[in-house]
C-alpha cells in the first residue's frame, strides 16, 4: 500500500503579516506546478489556500494574520522522483519567502516529513506523550495473542524492538534496562532464589542465570511473547528461552496472581522478586481505576513471598510522569507490611526518555 | 504569538476503500461542528474534503482509493477548551470510522499533535534525520554570536540543553558524552598535559580538572558559548568556566588552528588531545567539500602535538550515518603519520540516537 508523505514548512514573520502579500508571493510557486487553487478568506483569521495537483498530491497554505505561515504538502511516497519534486517545491516556497520577507522573517522550520499509512510504522510516542520517530526498517513479527498485540520491529540502531500493544517494551540495545531492574550490578545472585514476574523477553532470566543463582522461577502469562522473543530477540535472551526448564531455572506460562497466592500459602520464600509486568498506569485517579488495586495486590503478594532481608525490583515510569510516580509511591505506604524504597533514574537507549526504577524492601524492625 | 496545533488521525482500511462511503460517513461529523465543506474529486486518486470553521480552524479529509484515509486538523493552541474540542472531534471521527468500517479497519493511528509556530520549539531532529519532540518548556538563552546561533533550552528530563545552530550539542543529563570523549574512565589523567579543542560547554574541562592533571589547555573560539554555559549549564561545567584560568587549567578564546600551529612549531606536546569541535560532516562527497580537508588538518596538527604514546579522543557521529563514519575513518589513513583507532558506541541521553566515539593513537614502530 502506497504511504503518504506529509511535509511541513513553517514561517514566523516578525511583525503582523500582510496576508494578501504572502498569498500573492506564493501563488505563482504552486501554480507553476500546475496546481489548482481554492482560497478561503476568513477576514479576521487570515487565509487558507488549497492547491491540488492532478497526480493526487495537494498543498495547504495557511496564513495567519499574526504572522504565522504554515505550508503542508501531502504526496505519495512511492518513488524517489516524487519525493524530490516535493522537496524542490518546498525549497522554492522557502526561497520565495526569504526573497519577499527577507528582513521580517524570524524563523523558518521544516520538519522531517512524516510517513503516513506505510506498512512500517516508525512512530511510537514516548510514555510522556511526545512524538518520536524510530529508524525502523522491517516488521519482524506482528501477531495478536489472547492478551495483547505483539510486534517485534527492527531498528537500525537499537536492533529488534519488542512492542506490546503499542508500548515500546525493550530493544536488543537495552541491557541498561535489564541491569537496572536487577539492581544495577550491586547484588550478589549467587546461590539465591529469584522470582521474575512477567519478563517474557527473557532478558532478566538470561542475565541472572549467568550469575549462578540457586533457582530462578519466571512466571509469564503469554506464551506468544516468549515464542516471538526466543526467535527474534536473541541478543536479549540468548538461548535461555529455548527450553522452559534449565539447570537453575524454570519458566511457568501462567497468570502470576494465582502462582503468588500458591507460593504465599505454601510459605515459599525468595531472596529477590523482580516485577517486570507493566509500567505504572498513567491514570491520576486511582479511586476510579482498579489498576492501582491490581498493582497493590501484586505488591502485597510479592512481599508475602519475599524473605525479610530480600529485595523487590521493579520499573516505575518515565521520569516526567511525576503524578503517576507519586501515586505509585503512595501505594507503597498501603501494603500489609511497612516497606522502604529507593529509586534510580536510568537512560534506556530505545525509550528516548529517562526511566525510573524502584528497589523496595521490608522495613527492618529495630532490635 | 498563538501557535497552531496540528493533529493527525490515520486509518488503513483492509480492502480497497469505497471513497464515497468514507466521505458520506464522516461528512456529518464535521458538519455538526458548523464546518463548511469543499470537496475535490480526482476520479482516479480519490477525494480531498476541506472543512472550514468560523474560528479559524480547518480540517482535511483525504481519502485514497487504496484504502488510506488521512484526517488533518489545524487549530489554535491558545486555550484548553479549543484543544478539548479538537480532541473530541477526532474522537468522533474515530468512533464513526469504527462503526462504519468495523471489520475492515486494519490500523488506526493518532500521533501526538504537533505544535507549529510556538515561542518554544520542541522539535530538534536527530543527526540521522528523524523527527523527535523534546519536553522543552523554556527558552533559557537565545543569541547569535559571530560564529553561530546559540540556544540553551530547558528540558524537563534532560535539564538545560545547548543547541548550536540547530544541532543538539549537550544537555546537563549527558555526563555519558563527557565520559566517553575522555576515554570512558579507562585513562589516568593524574599529572598529564591535556589539550581540549572546542568544549565550550565546559563539561570535559570540569571533569578532567577533578582528576589532578598537570595542565589542561582548552581552546574555544566562541566566548558567547562559554558565557551562556557558565550561567545556564552549571550541572555540566560546575564553576570551572567562572575564571578562564585556574591552578591547573587555562582557557584560550581563540581559533584552534593557529594555536595548534604555534604549539607544533614550539614543540609543545600533550598526553591527551580531545577534539570536541563538531560532528563528522554529513557530506558524502569529500572531494567537493573542504570540511574533510579541515578535519584532516585538525587531525594532522593534533598528531603533531601528541606525544608518541598519547591518545586523541573525539566524537564521531550517529551510528546510523555509516557513510560519514567510513569517510572519517578513511581520513585517518591519510595523515602524515600512521595511526590506529578504536571506536565505542555510547547512548547519550538527550541525543535520542546512539553515538560513535573514537580513540586514535600513533602506530608504534616495532622494535
What does this structure look like?
The first copy, chain A, has 367 residues and is of the alpha+beta class. Chain A has 3 domains: 4-115, Double Stranded RNA Binding Domain, CATH 3.30.160; 119-169, Spermidine Synthase, Chain: A, domain 2, CATH 2.30.140.10; 173-362, 3-Layer(aba) Sandwich (Rossmann fold), CATH 3.40.50.150. Chain A has 9 helices and 18 strands. Chain A has helices at 19-31, 80-101, 175-181, 203-209, 223-232, 234-237, 256-266, 290-304, 322-332, and strands spanning 4-13, 36-41, 47-52, 58-63, 68-76, 105-110, 114-116, 136-144, 149-155, 159-164, 167-171, 193-198, 215-220, 249-253, 270-276, 306-318, 339-347, 354-362. In chain A, the strands form 3 sheets. In chain A, strands 1, 2, 3, 4, 5, 6 and 7 form a 7-stranded antiparallel beta sheet that branches. Chain A has a 7-stranded mixed beta sheet with strand order 14-13-12-15-16-18-17, with helices on both faces. In chain A, strands 8-9-10-11 form a 4-stranded antiparallel beta sheet, covered by helices on one side. In chain A, α1 (19-31) runs antiparallel to α2 and α7 runs parallel beside α8. The first copy, chain A, is elongated. Chain A starts with a strand and ends in a 5-residue tail after the last strand. In chain A, 45% of the residues are buried. Residues 280-288 of chain A have low confidence and may be disordered. At the A-B interface, β1, β3, β4 and β5 of A face β1, β3, β4 and β5 of B.
Amino acid at each position: 500500500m502506497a504511504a503518504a508523505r506529509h511535509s511541513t514548512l513553517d514561517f514566523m514573520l516578525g511583525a503582523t503579516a500582510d496576508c494578501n502579500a504572502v498569498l500573492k508571493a506564493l501563488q505563482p510557486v504552486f501554480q507553476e506546478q500546475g496546481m489548482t487553487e481554492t482560497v478561503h478568506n476568513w477576514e479576521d483569521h487570515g487565509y487558507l489556500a488549497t492547491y491540488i495537483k492532478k497526480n493526487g498530491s495537494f498543498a495547504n497554505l495557511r496564513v495567519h494574520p499574526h504572522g504565522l505561515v504554515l505550508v503542508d504538502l501531502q504526496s505519495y511516497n512511492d518513488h524517489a522522483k516524487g519525493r524530490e519534486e516535493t522537496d524542490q517545491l518546498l525549497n522554492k516556497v522557502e526561497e520565495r519567502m526569504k526573497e519577499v520577507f527577507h528582513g521580517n522573517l524570524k524563523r523558518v522550520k521544516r520538519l522531517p516529513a512524516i510517513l503516513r499509512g506505510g506498512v512500517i510504522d516508525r512512530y511510537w510516542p514516548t510514555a510522556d506523550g511526545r512524538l518520536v520517530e524510530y529508524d525502523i526498517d522491517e516488521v519482524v513479527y506482528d501477531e495478536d495473542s489472547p492478551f495483547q498485540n505483539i510486534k517485534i520491529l527492527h531498528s537500525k540502531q537499537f536492533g529488534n524492538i519488542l512492542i506490546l500493544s503499542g508500548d515500546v517494551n525493550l530493544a536488543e540495545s537495552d541491557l541498561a534496562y535489564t541491569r537496572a531492574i536487577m539492581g544495577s550490578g550491586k547484588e550478589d545472585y549467587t546461590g539465591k532464589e529469584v522470582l521474575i514476574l512477567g519478563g517474557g523477553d527473557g532478558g532478566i532470566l538470561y542475565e541472572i542465570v549467568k550469575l549462578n543463582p540457586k533457582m530462578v522461577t519466571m512466571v509469564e502469562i503469554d506464551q506468544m511473547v516468549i515464542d516471538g522473543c526466543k526467535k527474534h530477540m536473541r541478543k536479549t535472551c540468548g538461548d535461555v528461552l529455548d527450553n522452559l526448564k534449565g539447570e537453575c531455572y524454570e519458566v511457568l506460562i501462567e497468570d502470576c496472581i494465582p502462582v503468588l497466592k500458591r507460593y504465599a500459602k505454601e510459605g515459599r520464600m525468595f531472596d529477590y522478586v523482580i516485577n517486570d509486568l507493566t509500567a505504572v498506569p498513567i491514570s491520576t485517579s486511582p479511586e476510579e481505576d482498579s489498576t492501582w488495586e491490581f498493582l497493590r495486590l501484586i505488591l502485597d503478594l510479592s512481599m508475602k513471598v519475599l524473605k525479610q532481608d530480600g529485595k523487590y525490583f521493579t520499573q516505575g515510569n518515565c521520569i516526567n510522569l511525576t503524578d503517576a510516580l507519586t501515586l505509585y509511591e503512595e501505594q507503597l505506604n498501603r501494603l500489609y507490611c511497612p516497606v522502604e524504597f529507593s529509586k534510580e533514574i536510568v537512560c534506556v537507549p530505545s525509550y528516548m526518555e529517562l526511566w525510573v526504577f524502584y528497589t523496595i524492601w521490608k522495613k527492618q524492625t529495630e532490635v
